[in-house]
Design goal:
Length: about 220
């Protein structure tokens, strides 16, 4: 029986990956190296600090910890400027309808995001009222693939992990769901998300009846 659905934010509900990419690219430009869209794939679902470390590895740079903190802040300031302009038009196809459909069918809904900017994004897109619980990067101490974010979500909804379904676009997120003992639905391509229980291209391809069939 499905009692709760837990949703990743970036790449599942909204496409903020493009803003993360532009902000990281600007940082790389400033540091004097090229950062491509392909490089950016490695940053999806990964925390800010871990993302910076991957970026610096790509640029072949070794940088002191205090300097790293400044660079992460610089990137975040740019990212915050971009997401400040977001509105409901940036909700991904099918996402809002599916959130509503879950609740109509008595399934509770939680956010499970690595982002420390999740509340800004939810408020700007008008999505905050559609969640029964919100767990983001400000509540967690361990990043995905650690299961913490989803376990906290399940706890907030008072649902046991075996009654929870996770929707994720990143490999690290699918691993986190599996480690939490939850059913996982990959949003994206089956090649990158092969560890998920099932994979669909987007939430526009998902319904509660389909979910119940695959969960059974
Ligand atoms: P912030 P998600 C993740 O969000 C993003 O996918 C990832 O690219 C980003 O680095 C991470 O949040 C941290 O975000 O810098 O805003 O705290 O996919 O877990 O919703
Ligand atoms: Mg994501």
């Amino acid at each position: 029986e499905i009692k709760a659905c837990l949703f990743d934010l970036d790449g599942v509900i909204v496409d903020t990956a493009k803003y993360h990419y532009i902000a990281w690219k600007e940082l790389a430009d400033g540091l004097g190296f090229l950062f491509t869209e392909q490089d950016n794939e490695r940053l999806k679902g990964v925390s800010r600090t871990a993302s910076l470390n991957i970026l610096l590895e790509i640029g072949g740079l070794t940088i002191a910890e205090e300097e790293k903190a400044k660079l992460a802040e610089q990137k975040n300031n740019r990212y915050v400027e971009y997401i400040a302009k977001m509105d409901s038009s940036e909700i991904l196809p099918g996402a809002l309808d599916f959130l509503k459909e879950c609740r109509t069918n008595g399934i509770k809904v939680a956010l499970g995001s690595a982002s420390k900017n999740a509340m800004t994004i939810l408020n700007n897109t008008g999505l905050t009222p559609y969640f029964d619980a919100i767990i983001d990067g400000t509540h967690t101490s361990a990043a995905k693939p650690d299961p913490e974010v989803f376990l906290l979500g399940a706890k907030a909804l008072d649902a046991a992990p075996e009654h929870c379904v996770v929707f994720e676009d990143a490999e690290a997120g699918i691993e986190a769901a599996t480690r939490a003992g939850m059913f996982s639905i990959g949003i994206g391509s089956p090649e990158t998300l092969s560890a998920a229980n099932i994979v669909v291209p987007s939430l526009a391809h998902m319904s509660v009846s389909m979910l119940k069939e695959s969960f059974a």
